[in-house]
Design brief:
Elements: H1 3-31, E1 34-37, E2 44-46, H2 47-73, E3 87-93, H3 98-109, E4 117-123, H4 130-139, E5 146-150, H5 164-180, E6 183-188, H6 193-204, E7 210-215, H7 224-234
Parallel strand pairs: 3-4, 3-7, 4-6, 5-6
Antiparallel strand pairs: 1-2
Enzyme class: transferase
Organism: Marmota marmota marmota
Transmembrane segments: 12-36, 42-65
């Protein structure tokens, strides 16, 4: 079956299912029908709860089937030298727990992808943020390929004492450090997560083919980059891929938004 037809059928089916669930929930809410209940309605189970439970069950079933299909199909791709793609991993850090940050950086170091570039941008350049740069040096800074820069500004807001000339010089320095280093850390003026990601994207520009992103409390699987690249390379209609984020185990953290 053609990919476009399959996609269209999935869109139609998903839309119809959503409408059916919405209609059922609305009807249950209006009628207030209950299957069982205690005398004073302290406990009850009605049509509304049944529909929500069925919806959750169906979602879980399809998630399980999709996850199993991906596991079976998930054979790492082998790219020839002519097809080799470059990837940069961008880590957004903001007042992170030191243990979580160490685990994140160590997991990034173990990613099984040739010439992976790692860029950590710290959202904050004050003295109390300096421990994150120290951890970067501890885990990734022991090689000649590591670089860092503490910037008084960011790409959209000048820091204290910056002139137009020094601001432009700082921008060029950020680009130079990120592009010349396998592992780089940029500490910049606080601006929020979007500003952090903008710095990483702006500095990388078109120097890499793909950009992978995560938070600084994420522990990455060694095969994560090659697996996501496999999906992007196999289907030209796919423009972005999300990882399989699992709950924390044994004190490990998973990705969350700041």
């Amino acid at each position: 079956m053609p990919v476009q037809l399959t996609t269209a059928l999935r869109v139609v089916g998903t839309s119809l299912f959503a409408l059916a669930v919405l209609g059922g929930i609305l009807a249950a809410y209006v009628t207030g029908y209950q299957f069982i209940h205690t005398e004073k309605h302290y406990l009850s189970f009605g049509l509304y709860g049944a529909i929500l439970g069925l919806h959750l069950l169906i979602q879980s079933l399809f998630a399980f089937l999709e996850h199993r299909r991906m596991r079976r199909a998930g054979q790492p791709i082998k790219l020839s030298c002519q097809q080799r793609r470059s990837v940069a991993l961008c880590i957004a850090a903001y007042q992170e727990d030191p243990d979580y940050l160490r685990k994140c950086l160590r997991s990034a170091q173990r990613i099984a992808f040739p010439d992976l570039k790692v860029v950590m941008v710290v959202d904050g350049n004050r003295q109390e943020d300096a421990y994150m740069l120290d951890i970067f040096h501890e885990v990734l800074g022991g090689t000649e390929q590591a670089g860092f820069f503490v910037w008084r500004s960011n790409f959209h807001e000048a820091g204290e004492g910056e002139t137009e000339a020094s601001l432009q010089e700082g921008m060029e320095r950020v680009r130079a450090v990120v592009r010349a280093s396998t592992f780089s850390c940029i500490m910049q003026k606080w601006g929020g997560k979007r500003e952090v990601m903008y710095t990483a994207f702006k500095a990388l520009g078109d120097s890499v083919d793909y950009i992978q992103v995560c938070d600084s409390d994420t522990v990455l699987d060694p095969a994560c980059t090659i697996e996501m690249l496999r999906v992007l390379e196999e289907d030209p209609q796919v423009g972005g891929v999300g990882g399989d984020v699992q709950p924390p185990r044994k004190g490990l953290a998973v990705e969350d938004d700041q």
